[in-house]
Amino acid sequence: NGLNAHTFGRLLGQVKKNVDLPYELITHLEATLKKRNWLAHDFFYDYAMHMSDTDGRKEMITELQNLIHTFQVADHAVEKLSLKVWETMGITEDWLQNEVATQLKEYHSGKDA
Question: How many other C-beta atoms can be found within 10 angstroms of the C-beta atom of residue 63?
Fold first, then answer.
Protein backbone atom coordinates (compact mmCIF):
# COMPACT_ATOMS: atom_id res chain seq x y z
CA ASN A 1 0.00 0.00 0.00
CA GLY A 2 0.96 3.67 -0.06
CA LEU A 3 2.93 5.61 2.52
CA ASN A 4 -0.30 6.75 4.21
CA ALA A 5 -0.89 3.17 5.35
CA HIS A 6 2.29 3.16 7.44
CA THR A 7 2.65 4.36 10.99
CA PHE A 8 4.64 7.50 11.73
CA GLY A 9 7.33 5.34 13.34
CA ARG A 10 7.71 3.17 10.25
CA LEU A 11 7.76 6.22 7.97
CA LEU A 12 10.39 7.90 10.14
CA GLY A 13 12.51 4.75 9.94
CA GLN A 14 12.28 4.73 6.14
CA VAL A 15 13.10 8.42 5.89
CA LYS A 16 16.16 8.02 8.15
CA LYS A 17 17.43 5.22 5.87
CA ASN A 18 16.88 7.10 2.62
CA VAL A 19 17.27 10.81 3.37
CA ASP A 20 20.21 12.63 4.91
CA LEU A 21 18.54 14.66 7.67
CA PRO A 22 20.16 16.94 10.24
CA TYR A 23 20.73 15.23 13.58
CA GLU A 24 18.63 17.85 15.39
CA LEU A 25 15.64 17.15 13.14
CA ILE A 26 15.91 13.39 13.60
CA THR A 27 16.19 13.83 17.36
CA HIS A 28 13.14 16.12 17.45
CA LEU A 29 11.07 13.78 15.25
CA GLU A 30 12.00 10.77 17.40
CA ALA A 31 11.01 12.66 20.57
CA THR A 32 7.78 13.76 18.88
CA LEU A 33 7.03 10.16 17.93
CA LYS A 34 7.47 9.06 21.56
CA LYS A 35 5.18 11.84 22.76
CA ARG A 36 2.60 11.01 20.09
CA ASN A 37 2.60 7.35 21.11
CA TRP A 38 2.33 8.28 24.79
CA LEU A 39 -0.62 10.56 24.01
CA ALA A 40 -2.37 7.87 21.97
CA HIS A 41 -1.75 4.96 24.34
CA ASP A 42 -1.00 6.17 27.88
CA PHE A 43 -2.02 9.80 28.46
CA PHE A 44 -5.45 9.14 29.96
CA TYR A 45 -4.18 6.18 31.97
CA ASP A 46 -1.34 8.26 33.40
CA TYR A 47 -3.69 11.16 34.20
CA ALA A 48 -6.70 9.11 35.37
CA MET A 49 -6.50 10.41 38.93
CA HIS A 50 -6.13 14.01 37.72
CA MET A 51 -9.50 14.09 35.97
CA SER A 52 -11.47 14.28 39.20
CA ASP A 53 -10.25 17.69 40.39
CA THR A 54 -9.84 21.13 38.87
CA ASP A 55 -6.08 21.39 39.44
CA GLY A 56 -5.56 17.98 37.87
CA ARG A 57 -7.57 18.93 34.80
CA LYS A 58 -5.58 22.17 34.50
CA GLU A 59 -2.39 20.11 34.62
CA MET A 60 -3.75 17.86 31.86
CA ILE A 61 -4.65 20.87 29.73
CA THR A 62 -1.17 22.33 30.20
CA GLU A 63 0.39 19.02 29.16
CA LEU A 64 -1.85 18.87 26.08
CA GLN A 65 -0.93 22.45 25.16
CA ASN A 66 2.76 21.53 25.41
CA LEU A 67 2.15 18.52 23.17
CA ILE A 68 0.34 20.70 20.63
CA HIS A 69 3.38 22.98 20.47
CA THR A 70 5.74 20.01 20.05
CA PHE A 71 3.59 18.56 17.25
CA GLN A 72 3.32 21.93 15.49
CA VAL A 73 7.10 22.38 15.52
CA ALA A 74 7.56 18.89 14.07
CA ASP A 75 4.84 19.48 11.47
CA HIS A 76 6.47 22.74 10.39
CA ALA A 77 9.88 21.05 10.07
CA VAL A 78 8.43 18.20 8.00
CA GLU A 79 6.51 20.67 5.83
CA LYS A 80 9.72 22.60 5.08
CA LEU A 81 11.49 19.34 4.26
CA SER A 82 8.61 18.26 2.01
CA LEU A 83 8.72 21.54 0.12
CA LYS A 84 12.42 20.99 -0.60
CA VAL A 85 11.64 17.54 -1.98
CA TRP A 86 8.75 18.89 -4.09
CA GLU A 87 10.95 21.68 -5.45
CA THR A 88 13.45 19.13 -6.75
CA MET A 89 10.54 17.87 -8.89
CA GLY A 90 9.66 21.37 -10.10
CA ILE A 91 6.70 21.87 -7.76
CA THR A 92 6.85 25.17 -5.90
CA GLU A 93 5.00 26.37 -2.82
CA ASP A 94 3.03 28.80 -5.00
CA TRP A 95 1.96 25.95 -7.27
CA LEU A 96 0.84 23.90 -4.26
CA GLN A 97 -1.16 26.81 -2.82
CA ASN A 98 -2.84 27.43 -6.19
CA GLU A 99 -3.66 23.74 -6.50
CA VAL A 100 -5.20 23.65 -3.02
CA ALA A 101 -7.25 26.76 -3.82
CA THR A 102 -8.46 25.16 -7.06
CA GLN A 103 -9.40 21.93 -5.30
CA LEU A 104 -11.26 23.81 -2.56
CA LYS A 105 -13.14 25.85 -5.14
CA GLU A 106 -14.15 22.67 -6.98
CA TYR A 107 -15.20 21.06 -3.71
CA HIS A 108 -17.35 24.01 -2.66
CA SER A 109 -18.95 24.37 -6.11
CA GLY A 110 -19.88 20.68 -6.10
CA LYS A 111 -21.22 20.95 -2.58
CA ASP A 112 -23.54 23.81 -3.55
CA ALA A 113 -24.93 21.99 -6.61
Answer: 16
DSSP string, the chain: --GGGS-HHHHHHHHHHHS---HHHHHHHHHHHHHHHHHHHTHHHHTGGGGGSHHHHHHHHHHHHHHHHHHHHHHHHHHHHHHHHHHHTT--HHHHHHHHHHHHHHHHHHHH-
Domain residue spans in the chain?
A: 3-112
CA separation for the pair 82, 68 (Å, rounded): 21
Handedness of CA 28, 29, 31, 32 (dihedral sign): positive
pTM: 0.71
Cα 98 to Cα 39: distance, rounded to the nearest angstrom? 35
The model's pLDDT over 22-73, given as tens digits with 9 standing for 90+, comes to 899 899 999 999 999 999 999 999 999 999 999 999 999 999 999 999 999 9
